[in-house]
Specification:
Layout (H helix, E strand, L loop, with lengths): L14 E4 L7 H8 L4 E7 H5 L4 H9 L3 E8 L5 H14 L3 E6 L1 H15 L9 E2 L9 E5 L11 E5 L5 E5 L7 E4 L9 H20 L6 H23 L4 H20 L4 H13 L3 H32 L6 H19 L15 H8 L3 H4 L8 H11 L1
Parallel strand pairs: 1-9, 2-3, 2-4, 4-6, 5-8, 6-9
Antiparallel strand pairs: 7-8
Helix pairs in contact: 1-3, 4-5, 6-7, 6-8, 6-10, 7-8, 7-11, 9-10, 9-12, 10-11, 10-14, 12-14
Length: 388
């Protein structure tokens, strides 16, 4: 018998285009989408200096756009980067913001577009639903298949020496998203693995979230996991595999839409202190904590993990507990074979710091509340030790 559907909402950017090589004709696309003509590209120094932006800049200038490039985005960006980006945009009279890069670049693009369009101070925006006013037009073009930031309404900033805070608002959804998997070709194996696992974490945690889980987020999460689990190793093995790169980028995008509407949980809560204290890439910290958290959650999440086993392993007549265990084993094996670092010790996290990390993880209440199993400080310490 079909069950009734509980009320739910699902938000996502207004329009998306997936096109191999699309970034090389971004000027034509923006000309079709907007009347504004002063573009601020938000990116990082590596992409700029290595020429990845050149085709996009050339296309924009050929179509009559004025282009300003802010390339000082860094991993775990602090508020000072936001201030510098906004100042450069205001000086140039920028009226379109184009985020082109990884998750940090797209996060800075989001908040810059807001601050160019409203006088509200950044300090008043932190939290959920605290943004007032409107932003300038925003376009996002990811260069990694991982964060899904191009389709989320979240920006994470470093607000202290080791602390991060988030801004969650509908105004952070982009007007347009371009998925050009050609921009991900040649991404190193370790980065491909870490960002790909990050995206799979998004899909898994969205599917098992305690809050706002809904049929659409489930659908997007399952399809994201199917695409990425089948293509991660191929993308890691051959950075020029177009089919694998496209599948990973689309999967990352779908996972981003899933967790933007059904939020992530304990893997992210335990990953954030690792990034804050040791400046490790976000995708890598998620990969390091995924296995321990999956095993911890099995006591409650086994039926949901069994459903995901059908996605990555195919249907089976096995019982729920066996299917759940097989799913966790599959994910662990996939991570082991991807080439990503496997243990906290492999990335030089001091064992003596584990209690401090557990205390810091408890501050991530926004995330921990979504986990299918309650996580205490003692649990967090045990999980860090298991990952060590």
């Amino acid at each position: 018998m079909t069950q009734t559907i509980a009320p739910f909402s699902f938000d996502t950017p207004g329009s998306m285009l997936m096109e191999w090589g699309g970034a090389a004709r971004i000027g034509v696309l923006l000309g079709e989408w907007f009347t504004e003509r002063n573009v601020l590209i938000v990116t990082d120094r590596f992409l700029h200096e290595n020429g990845l932006l050149a085709p996009a800049i050339g296309s924009l200038e050929a179509e009559g756009f004025s282009v300003t490039v802010f390339d000082d985005v860094v991993a775990d960006p602090p508020e000072a980067v936001v201030a510098a980006c906004v100042a450069q945009g205001k000086d140039a009279g920028s009226d379109i913001v184009l985020g082109l890069g990884g998750g940090s670049s797209m996060d800075i693009a989001k908040i810059t577009a807001l601050l160019l369009g409203t006088d509200q101070p950044l300090s008043e925006m932190y939290g959920i639903g605290n943004v007032r006013g409107h932003r300038t037009p925003l376009v996002q073009v990811p260069t990694t298949a991982g964060t899904g930031s191009e389709v989320t309404n979240i920006t994470i900033l470093t607000t202290g020496e080791t602390t991060k805070m988030g801004i969650v608002s509908r105004q952070l959804y982009a007007d347009r998203v371009l998925l050009d998997a050609a921009l991900t070709v040649g991404l190193p194996q370790t980065q491909t693995a870490a960002t790909g696992i990050d995206a799979m974490v998004h899909a898994i945690e969205a599917f098992t979230s305690q809050h706002r889980k809904n049929p659409l987020s489930d659908f997007f999460g399952r399809e994201a996991l199917r695409l990425m689990s089948a293509n991660l190793l191929a993308a890691c093995k051959n950075g020029n595999d177009r089919a694998a790169r496209e599948a990973m980028l689309l999967g990352s995008n779908l996972a981003g839409q899933a967790f933007s509407n059904s939020p992530v949980a304990a893997v992210h809560a335990l990953a954030y202190p690792l990034g804050g204290h040791y400046h490790l890439p976000h995708g890598l910290t998620n990969a390091l904590m995924l296995g321990p958290v999956l095993r911890f959650n099995m006591t409650t999440a086994a039926p949901l993990y069994a459903e995901l086993a059908d996605v990555v392993l195919g249907p089976s007549d096995e019982g729920v507990q066996d299917r759940s265990a097989n799913f966790v084993a599959f994910m662990q094996n996939l991570m082991d074979r991807s080439g990503a670092p496997l243990r906290l010790r492999d990335v030089e996290v001091p064992e003596d710091d584990l209690p401090m990390l557990a205390r810091d993880a408890m501050l991530q209440t926004r995330l921990l509340v979504n986990n299918p199993v309650e996580v205490t400080e003692q649990d967090a310490l045990r999980l860090y030790r298991e990952a060590y």
